[in-house]
Description:
21 strands; elongated; Rossmann fold; 33% helix
Amino acid sequence: MSILSGKKIVAGICGGIAAYKAASIVSKLAQAGAPVTVIMTRAACEFVTPMTFESLSHHRVLTDLWAEPLAHVELAYNADLFVLMPATYNIVGKLAHGIADDLLTTTLAATRAPVLVIPSMESQMYTNPIFQENKKKLQELGYRFLEPETGRLASGREGIGRFPSEEKVLKAIEDILAERALLKGHRVLVTAGPTREMLDPMRCITNKSSGKMGYALAEQARDLGADSVCLITGPTQLEPPAGVECVRVESAQEMRDTVLERFAQCDLILMAAAVADWRPKRASAQKLKKSGARALTLVLEKTPDILSELGRRKKQAQILVGFAAETEKLLEHAREKLKEKNLDLVVANDITAPGAGPEVETNIVTLLYRDGRSETLPCLPKREVAREVLRRVAECWKQPAQKI
């Protein structure tokens, strides 16, 4: 449990009978050298006294937002991890709807640290469609959930909703903290979004890429401890992740030039942008009018193949990841891309599949490796897809002799 030593953990204790089990978790974290600050909701204090957690954590327990109005700001900025245990129906509903009406929810609203949510409640509450929808929403926003177990509940009934074992909780905490250093020592470059190829000052050729996958990759690379993350993005409606250098471009040529400026300084390059394959050979300086014209003929020329150029320039220490959005022959086309462009990994998806289109929050991808292996991930939020891709890249760096 050395990964826990020195890690600042905030334990949010909510009003459920399993609050007494959280006391043992706090004790184990403190024994492992993790400074643990406990925030208890008013309901939690009805199950276990603050004195119990003060004795086990050796820190003062916080319960009142108004006692120290700025305490939530300091906790939010300094925490390495938040753990909500037991996470009640109420707290999950509040988080999903942006309600911050006490010290715990206000602190969570301000933090950028990862949040591990450990639900525990009666089966009928856990399986309630409202709870499941709130859970799904939080997962898509990056909250991590540790599923409850099936067993005897507080009511005496059997079913899902039982607080997980101490071993599972501690392992989940360790896994999240270990992930935070997976990309330490590495510089990451990510491309995202569409490009625009102008026909005239108003009209352009573009595509339906939302940029969500690329932005998720940049966010996760930051969260996994990369020394630096540069996001080169075409036009999107997304806010770039905090702490990430964001460079905005419009055309495929601008994307190429900007990528090449930074390519040599990065050791992981993730090319998730949907770069236009074609552009008008000539763009009109004035807006094209349709009055008097029966037809418009466009002469197109190829845009630069950025990925192929990077594949030719790639050094041994660099890892180049391409993305293949296909509508047919998914694996065949993805394998061709992997070989022809000298990639280390291709992330392929069928954009016609439900839950895998460019504008939705989820994705279904197949990873194709240089050694012929392939791996299909289930339908996951794009943040989770991004994390899984980066975890597999990190595994390659752990074993230098092993190729992706």
